[in-house]
């Protein structure tokens, strides 16, 4: 038998606006931005002479007209103004990145970091390895294009010895 009181009591209630709280954990709150995930991502492939590039980088979010393919990306001018600092490997949307902003389809995200490296021996090579990028990248080293990559969540490398 249909109980009309129970039916009316189960009617959807109006939702009240609530402030969203950031989802943090004790590990996120204890994060040291200068020492983020310092371990090698593939312990079996770790070398004695590698530099982990996780940590604080400068970033810039710049507008771009129309769609961007990897060739267009490689021809973009490196920004002269930087918006602030981002903690890598976190995406700009993630609270732990320190940015807290979504990059729109009409924008490009640039990263910049200066590092000092010791001189290589004649038989050594310098490889810049990425575990992944979110879809498309053009990598510049000392203002010169080192290479491009398209495809999210795939590892890739550039030899930047010279």
Automatic annotation (TrEMBL):
Give a single Pfam family match. Answer: Glyco_hydro_2_N
- Please tell me whether the keyword Nucleotide-binding is annotated for this protein: no
Q: Which InterPro entries match?
A: Galactose-bd-like_sf, GH2_Domain-Containing, Glyco_hydro_2_N
Mention one GO biological process in which this protein takes part, according to its record. carbohydrate metabolic process
Could you name the domain of life of the organism this protein comes from?
Bacteria
Q: Where are the transmembrane segments?
A: none
Whether Phosphoprotein counts among this entry's keywords is: no
Q: Which UniProt keywords apply?
A: Hydrolase
Which GO molecular function annotations are given, in alphabetical order?
hydrolase activity, hydrolyzing O-glycosyl compounds
**Residues in Glycosyl hydrolases family 2 sugar binding domain copies:** 53-161
Protein name listed in UniProt: Glycoside hydrolase family 2
- Species source reads Lancefieldella parvula
